[in-house]
What we know:
Layout: H1 7-22, H2 29-59, H3 72-104, E1 107-109, H4 117-131, E2 138-139, E3 155-162, E4 167-174, E5 182-185, E6 192-196, H5 197-203, E7 213-224, H6 238-250, E8 254-260, H7 265-274, E9 282-285, H8 325-331, E10 334-338, H9 344-355, E11 359-366, H10 374-384, E12 388-393, H11 401-414, E13 417-419, E14 426-427, E15 431-438, E16 441-449, E17 461-468, H12 471-485, E18 497-499, H13 503-519, E19 525-530, H14 536-548, E20 551-556, E21 573-578, E22 583-584, E23 587-591, E24 598-602, H15 608-612, E25 614-620, H16 624-637, E26 644-647, E27 653-655, H17 667-689
Helix pairs in contact: 1-2, 1-3, 2-3, 9-10, 10-11, 13-14
Amino acid sequence: MIPYLNRELSWVEFNQRVLNEALRDDLPLLERLKFLAITAANLDEFFQVRIGGLMLMRRSGRKAPDASGLTPAKNLAALRQRILQMSEDQYSLLNEVLLPGLEKSGIRLLRVRDLSLSQASHVSAIFEDSIFPLLTPLAIDPEGPPPVMPALQMIVACRLLDPETQTVRHALIPIPENLGRRIPVTLEENGHAFLLIEDLVATHAEKLFPGENVTATSAFRVTRNGDIAVQEEDASDLAGEMEDVLTARRFADTVRLELRQDTPRDLSKLIQTVTAVTPQEVYRVDGPPGLASFMELSFLSGFDHLRDSDWPAQTSPAITPGTTMFETIAAGDVMLFHPYESFEPVLRFIEEAAEDPDVIAIKQVVYRTARQSRIIDALIKAAENGKHVTALVELKARFDEARNLDRADELQRAGAQIVYGVKGLKTHAKICLVVRRESGHLRRYVHLGTGNYNEATSKIYTDISYLTCKPEYGNDASQFFNAVTGRSKLLRFLRLVPAPTAMKPRLLDLIASETERAKQGLPARIIAKVNSLQDPEMIAALYKASQAGVDIRLNVRGICCLKPGDSKFSKNIEVISIIDRFLEHARIFYFHQGGDAEVYIASADWMTRNLEKRVELMIPIEEPALKRRLVRVLEAYFQDNTQASRLLPDGTSQRLVREKGKKAFRVQDHFYQQAKNAAKAREHERSMTFEPHVPAE
C-alpha cells in the first residue's frame, strides 16, 4: 500500500501555515489580524463542506477507511482534536497579542462597561435608530419545536425573568448580517474605538422584551452543513434546483456551535438543545465567535503604518498604450502574471469586444465573478449591441450560486444565451472566445487562464493569463464551447487538453515518459505548481517516477496527500508551500522531455474532482520566450527562503530557515520588483523613442 496523507488533516496543516503568518511578530499588526481572519474564514468553509460531508458519512454508518486509513468517525475525532488546538492558538493570539497591540496603536475594542456617559449615549442612539427596528426576537417554547436559526450569523441568547410572576423563560435574538459587526464609538483623542454589535444588542435586549428583566445573555454562532448536492438526474430546471439547494443550506444540520467559554451553564445547555448538537460539535471559544469578521478591521483607514506597503499592479510591457487589445494580440501572444501585472488588459479585451462593431460573437465561462463585475456588465452591453453572446454560467460554484443566478438572469434579459454548465460536472475552465470579422474573414481571439474572471480577486490571487489569436487555439476554443453547450464529448483538440476526458491521461503519460527516461539514465525532471494534490493515481505515478530517479519538485499551496521524505517512495520528491501576502493560485506544469520541455498552465489542480469530475482546461505554452518565462517562475519559488515551508513526512510543515550568510529571497517580492522594473524600463524605452516637436526658426 502506498503512503497517503489524510486529505482533511492536510488541509488543516495548510490553515496552520496561514495562522503561522498571524503569529509572526515581524509583520505589521493589521496584516497579522488579516491572516487570523483568513484562518477563521477558511475554517467556516471547511466545516460547511468537509466536516459536513464526513458527518453525513458517519451518520449513514459508513465504516470503510479512506486512502489514509481513517474511517469517517476516526477522521472526525482527529480533526476535532487538531482544530481545538488551532482555536486555542487563535484566541491566545487575539487576546494576548493582537488586541493589546492594536490598543497601543489607537485601535481599541471596547466593552459596554468601558464606555463613558457620552459614549454610552452615542451608541444607544445608534441602537435605537439603526439596529432595534431590524431585530426579530425568537421565543423558545419548551413544548414546541425550536426556532430555526440562521447559519454563520451572530445570535444573542437571553434568559428572561418576569418580576411579577418570577417566571423564567428564554429567547434568541438573531442579528442580521447586513448590520455589520463593528459599532464605531466616538473618542475625543485620535484613534478608533468600537463595540461588537452583539455586545450592544445584549446590553439593550430588555427593550425587545417589555416588562421582563434580562438576567443573562450570551452570543453564539452556528455553522450548518453546506455539502448539499444538486440532484441533477431529477432536475429539469437546474436554476430552480439550485434555488432549492440554497434554501436547504439554511435549514441543514448544525456541524459546529461556537460558544463563548463564559456562557452561563443553563444558557449553554439551552443553546445546545435548540441547535441539536452533541458535545462533539461544540467549540468553546475564549472571546467573540466568528473571527472572520475581523477582516474588515484590517482595512481600517488612517492606519497605513500598521499594514504592508502597497504593491500596485504594473502595466505589462506587452501592452502598448493607445493600441487596442486586438492589435496587441495580433502582433504576438500575450502572457500576464497577475497581480504583479495588471488584470486591466483582460477587462479591456472583453470591454473592447463588447463595443467593437467588427466583433460578432463572445463566448465565455462565468464561474466566480466580482460583486460589481465589469466583465458581466461588458457581456450585457455586448448583447444589447446585437452581438451573439453565450455565457456558460456555472451554478454549482459553491457559495457563489446566488450571485451567479442573479447575474445569469440579467444576462438573459439583455439577450445573451445562457447555458447552465454540464450535467454531472462542474465547469471550472477559464476561457473567453471573441470572434471578429477582419478583412472579410473571421478571426478568433482567445483568453485562457488559471484564475477566475474576477477583478477583485485578481488583485490578491497569483494567476496566469494567456491571450492568443493562433488559429489552432481559436479552433479548439470553438470546439470546446460547441461540445459544452451542445452536450457532446470533449474529444482531443489540436492544442488544448480538456478534463475530464484527456487531461489526466495526458499528465500520466508525461510522468511516465519522464520515468522511462530516468530508467534509461537520461535527465528527467518534473516541476509543478498546484493548489492541491490528492488524486491517488497521480500520486502513485509520481512515486514511481521518484523511484526511477526523476527529480520532482512540487509547489503545493494547500492539500497535499503525497507523503514526501519516504525513503522507498519519495526520496526524489521535494514539496514546498508558499504563504505570503498574495494567495498562490496559478497552476503551472513543467516536464523536461529530453530537453524539449513541455510547459502548461491549467485551471485544474491535481485532485480527482478536477481531473475526473469537472470541465477543465490545460493549455500548452509553445512560444519559446513565454515558455522560458514560466520555467523561471517555477524555479524561483524554490529559491524562497523567507515565506516557504517544506512539507514533512508526517503531514506537518516546517518553515525553511535561511542558511547563514545567504541573502534573503522572498519570491513574491522578487516577482513584484521584476514587474515594476520591466514596466519602468518599457516606459523609459517609449520616452526615448518619442520625438518631441521642434518649432521652426
